[in-house]
Amino acid sequence: MEQKHGILLLNKPKGMSSAFAIGRLKRLGQKKIGHAGTLDPMATGLLIVLLGEATKISGYLLENGGKTYSGTLELGKITDTWDAEGTVLEERSYADITEEMLKNAVAGWLGTSIQQVPPYSAAKHNGQALYKLARAGKETPVKTKEIHISHAEIQWVDLPAMRFRVTCSSGSYIRSLAHSLGIRLGCGATLTELTREYSHPFYLQDAVTLEELQEKPDLLEERLIPMEQGLPDWRVIELGEREAKAVKNGNAVACSGTDFAENEKVFLRSRGTLLALAEAKRLGNTLSWQILRGLSTL
């Protein structure tokens, strides 16, 4: 199959890394390929796969994308990875934990907070992933990041297990939410299941499985989504022939019209073909489209 350009929504199975899933798709002839938002091997659900020129919008997808997850955690256990795939470091009693205490702890997730990055994660320290340092038995530095949780709910409680759903900012670690809940309750907790249900602006229900693609490779092209749909807040600006030629050469072109805001990001298109990602910048008294990334072979 020739190289495609666009977005594919994949339902990643449990036990497979995001990189391995991408490798399976490479066998369908998709050499230029990436994804927006890694899923741990233990996790299932929506993986946004970017094919061809669509790989150039990855950073913007991650920058703007809220996510929704559902998952389960188990009270009374602390593991080194903060999930069920790690080594159990400690077991504690959860006998005095009530459902009301759990509700209050989950409500504590809401809002903006500083989250500790799991020691087993792809976050970098001096250019090296934390999980590599941890696996080598080296001390991992404590890293933190700001996150925002806009929705948090308990779906059911069957102690020591609890199922929950959260909507969070991009880059939030759900393992860390489970771990912090266990710390607040004093009994410890570890994440046991996780499913990504939504990654802005796409839903898991629209995703395809690797098995379906293997059985019917042509399904890849049928389910391909135009890259501009990945950034629905970006307008698509149609250019004339002269402007299109300038953009293809990497040159800025004046913004036609008066309703553009400085720093607004858009797609530039000509005759139905996307040419570039651009941002409105002021050059003197003129607002112009500065090229962020050129889009070729589309």
Features:
8 helices, 298 residues, alpha+beta, five-stranded mixed sheet, nine-stranded mixed sheet
Overview of this protein structure:
The chain has 298 residues and is of the alpha+beta class. Helix content is 20%, strand content 38%. The strands form four sheets. Strands 1, 2, 3, 4, 7, 10, 11, 12 and 13 form a nine-stranded mixed sheet that branches. The protein has a five-stranded mixed sheet with strand order 14-16-17-18-15. Strands 5-6 form a two-stranded antiparallel ribbon. A hairpin with a 2-residue loop joins strand 12 and strand 13. The longest helix is centred in the middle third of the chain and has 12 residues. The chain is elongated, with a radius of gyration of 22 Å. 33% of the residues are buried.
- The number of distinct β-strands equals 18
The overall pLDDT, averaged over residues, is: 91
Helix content: 10-25%
Report on the biggest sheet: 9 strands, mixed
Shape: elongated
Q: Could you state the oligomeric state of the chains shown?
A: single chain
Q: What class would the helix/strand composition place it in? A: alpha+beta
Task: Please tally the helical runs, counting DSSP H or I stretches of 4 or more residues.
Answer: 8
Termini distance?
Answer: 16 Å
Query: SSE order, as H and E?
Result: EHEEHEEEHEEEHEEHEEHHEHEEEE
- Give the amount of beta strand, in percent: 35-45%
**Contiguous runs where pLDDT drops below 50 for at least 5 residues:** none
Gyration radius, rounded: 22 Å
